[in-house]
TrEMBL record, chain A:
Gene Ontology molecular function terms on file: ATP binding; ATP hydrolysis activity
Pfam families registered for this protein in UniProt: ABC_tran, oligo_HPY
Domain ABC transporter: 4-254
The entry's keywords: ATP-binding, Cell membrane, Membrane, Nucleotide-binding, Transport
Cellular localisation: Cell inner membrane
Topology class, membrane: Peripheral membrane protein
Native organism taxonomy: Bacteria, Pseudomonadati, Pseudomonadota, Alphaproteobacteria, Rhodospirillales
Organism: Paramagnetospirillum marisnigri
Family statement: Belongs to the ABC transporter superfamily.
Protein's UniProt name: Peptide ABC transporter
GO biological process: peptide transport; transmembrane transport
TrEMBL record, chain B:
Keyword Transport appears in the UniProt entry: yes
UniProt record similarity statement: Belongs to the ABC transporter superfamily.
Single GO cellular component term: plasma membrane
UniProt name for this protein: Peptide ABC transporter ATP-binding protein
Molecular function (Gene Ontology), one example: ATP hydrolysis activity
Protein's organism: Paramagnetospirillum marisnigri
Membrane topology category: Peripheral membrane protein
InterPro entries the record matches: AAA+_ATPase, ABC_transp_ATP-bind, ABC_transporter-like_ATP-bd, ABC_transporter-like_CS, Oligopep_ABC_C, P-loop_NTPase
Keyword check for Transport: yes
Residues in ABC transporter domain copies: 5-251
Length: 318, 318
């Protein structure tokens, strides 16, 4: 049994201008100690998926089918008290913008101690000590003093480290990192991702890394899932995905990303944009942008699974 | 050929209590007519302060800015708006959503600088010019009546570029023009920018922390660290054989797909404080993986290390 299993998940948002079909038939799994990357353009449903797993979707969201299982427990059927026991302790999340995700009027050390007091069954003094220890582990210099600092007194990179310390305080089995390094400098990004990787290896923590940065996913993930307009179009081990992308969208995504050694002329843009997810959608949501489109594609994508754990949802895979 | 922009020993210090924050410290650089120069460095290194001085919205503390062989550094920022050079130095901003007036249509966004800096216009003449500019950046003329919120990210980026090109600038300063865009759109905008520069002969100063993008678009690159230029030179030379340990660390922090090997350089610690920095100590000392005794007693100066390749380091790398 995988640690996290998402089965045929479909999720809609009710809005004034119609129902947005944000996720359709999404199936993914993450094993213990594994890092799964989820990549795609903005609007492809990456964050919606991570919010659904954490059970913090917007009030307008409804799950129309499917299941999310964490160690066998169906999170969509679990009661609020069960979820409260899991979140923060067994599964934790690093949000995109640390400045808005941290409490601005509470010292950072206290915020970490709060999580420990709630989940770890420790005394207040022990929680404070552990909070300082966590800050030291994420390499914040002078952790005793920094524990008393407020988020506005710290740089963006340091706030992000505090978020990681907060997420990892109770040694979760699953970490969801939603664009954890967007907006940070490359040097800070490298340091933070090294840290997450190290902690994941130490405790066999599974990581779901949501990113739009293919380079980052390539470097940090064991497997990568590619999302387009609410569909998972391809899942493959990282090296294989880049060496031999099978879905035309994956291929285009790779060839449009600036990379060392490629000239400007070699970048192939992806034509068109994501379809409007309200109203009627073509069965294959990529068909209007696809350079390989043929009439048979209107029958809908055909998910194919091979023995090596690769999945591609396409009528005409490469 | 004479440089279009020639900056010598430019400084900007901000008072912080009784101390001085050295945001830009003795920077010299030049941009030739039609040349594309990249400016890279971490957040907080003084890129934005430098750019604000070059666009003459901020007054330098010391130093000279010569544009087209005219000294413009001494002109107070408030008066510069009324000089003819205002039209010749234009800027493309980072986030097209934030930098377009939400109550202006795309037409007005592009027409506003034309009305202010060029003209007088007849209604028909202005319309023809705006449509001409829209055509130049590949924005469909039908979209000119739309407001920014009715446009996609790529379309807004095009409006921002058309607006900057309207007053026929000779120097275009681009501040992370593609960082807010999806990769699928980024490639298109990069190609557009490259094409426009070749067609119009405009010089670019391209501020970015995405080194892959700088490599694609620029001929020369300038690397800044804490208010100082630490390395500059032709893009191929700097990317192939970075000589400054900071440049090396910056390059090795770019996520790659494991194509390029070589050991990684990881920076530890936080940057030194830019408030009243010691004039004798190298700004990178303390974070530098090399760090010799001389680094603490003498600030390294930029030295020529090969054709146009300049490095400020006591222990340059091979």
């Amino acid at each position: 049994m995988m640690l996290l299993e998402i089965d045929n998940l479909s999720l809609n948002f009710r809005t004034r201008s119609g129902v947005v079909k944000a996720l359709e038939d999404v199936s993914l799994s993450v094993g213990r100690g594994e890092t799964l990357g989820v990549v795609g353009e903005s609007g492809s449903g990456k964050s919606v998926l991570s919010f659904a797993v954490m059970g913090i979707s917007d009030a307008a969201a409804t799950v129309s089918q499917g299941a999310i299982r964490f160690e066998g427990l169906d999170l969509l059927k679990a009661g609020p008290s069960d979820l409260d026991e899991l979140r923060g302790a067994e599964m934790a999340m690093i949000f995109q913008n640390p400045r808005t995700a941290l409490n601005p009027i509470r010292p950072v050390g206290r915020q970490i101690a709060d999580v420990l007091l709630r989940h770890a069954g420790v005394t207040r003094a022990q929680a404070q000590d552990k909070a300082v220890e966590m800050l030291a582990r994420v390499r914040i210099p002078d952790p005793e003093r920094r524990a008393k600092a407020y988020p506005f007194e710290m740089s963006g990179g340091m706030c992000q480290r505090v978020m990681i310390a907060l997420a990892l305080a109770c040694s979760p089995k699953l970490l969801i990192a939603d664009e954890p390094t967007t907006g940070l400098d490359v040097t800070t990004q490298a340091a933070i991702m090294d840290l997450v990787g190290e902690l994941a290896r130490e405790s066999r923590m599974a990581t779901l890394l949501i990113t739009h940065d293919l380079g980052l996913a390539a470097e940090r993930c064991d497997r990568i899932a590619v999302m387009h307009a609410g569909h998972v179009v391809e899942v493959a081990p990282t090296a294989e995905l880049f060496a031999r992308p099978r879905h035309p969208y994956t291929a285009r995504l790779i060839s449009t990303t600036p990379r060392p050694g490629a000239s400007l002329a070699a970048l192939e843009p992806i034509p068109g944009s994501l379809p409007d997810l309200r109203g009627e959608l073509a069965p294959c949501r990529y068909s209007a942008r696809c350079h390989l489109y043929q009439a048979e594609c209107d029958a809908g994508p055909l998910p194919r699974q091979d023995d090596n754990g690769r999945m591609v949802a396409c009528r005409r895979p490469a | 050929m004479r440089p279009l922009l020639d900056v010598v020993d430019l400084c900007r210090r901000f008072p912080v209590g009784k101390s001085q924050l050295h945001a830009v410290d003795m920077i010299s650089l030049h941009v030739m007519p039609g040349e594309a120069v990249g400016l890279v460095g971490e957040s907080g290194c003084g890129k934005s302060t430098l750019v604000r001085m070059l666009t003459r919205v901020l007054d330098p503390t010391e130093g000279s800015i010569r544009f087209d062989e005219r000294e413009i550094g001494y002109i107070p920022a408030a008066r510069f708006t009324r000089t003819p050079d205002r039209a010749l130095i234009q800027m493309v901003f980072q986030d097209p959503t934030e930098s377009l007036n939400p109550r202006f249509t795309a037409f007005d966004c592009i027409a506003d600088p034309l009305r202010r800096l060029k003209g007088p216009w007849t209604t028909a003449g202005l319309k023809a010019r705006v449509e001409d500019l829209a055509g130049m950046v590949g924005l469909p003329v039908e979209l000119l009546g739309r407001f920014p919120h009715q446009l996609s990210g790529g379309q807004k980026a095009r409006v921002g570029i058309a607006r900057a090109l309207g007053p026929e600038p000779r120097l275009l300063i681009l501040d992370e023009p593609t960082s807010a865009l999806d990769v699928s759109v980024q490639a298109v905008v990069l190609k557009l920018l490259d094409d426009l520069r070749r067609r119009l002969g405009v010089s670019y100063l391209f501020v970015s922390h995405d080194l892959n993008v700088v490599r694609l678009l620029c001929e020369r690159v300038i690397v800044m660290y804490l208010g100082k230029v630490v390395e500059s030179g032709p893009v191929e030379a700097v990317f192939a054989t970075p000589r400054h340990p900071y440049t090396k660390a910056l390059l090795s922090a770019i996520p790659s797909r494991g194509e390029e090997g070589g050991p990684r350089i990881r920076l530890s610690g936080e940057p030194r404080s830019p408030i009243d920095p010691s004039p004798q100590v190298c700004r990178f000392f303390g974070r530098c993986p090399l760090g010799a005794d001389a680094c603490q007693t003498e600030m390294p100066e930029l030295r020529e290390m090969g054709e146009g390749h300049r490095v400020a380091c006591h222990t340059p790398m091979d």
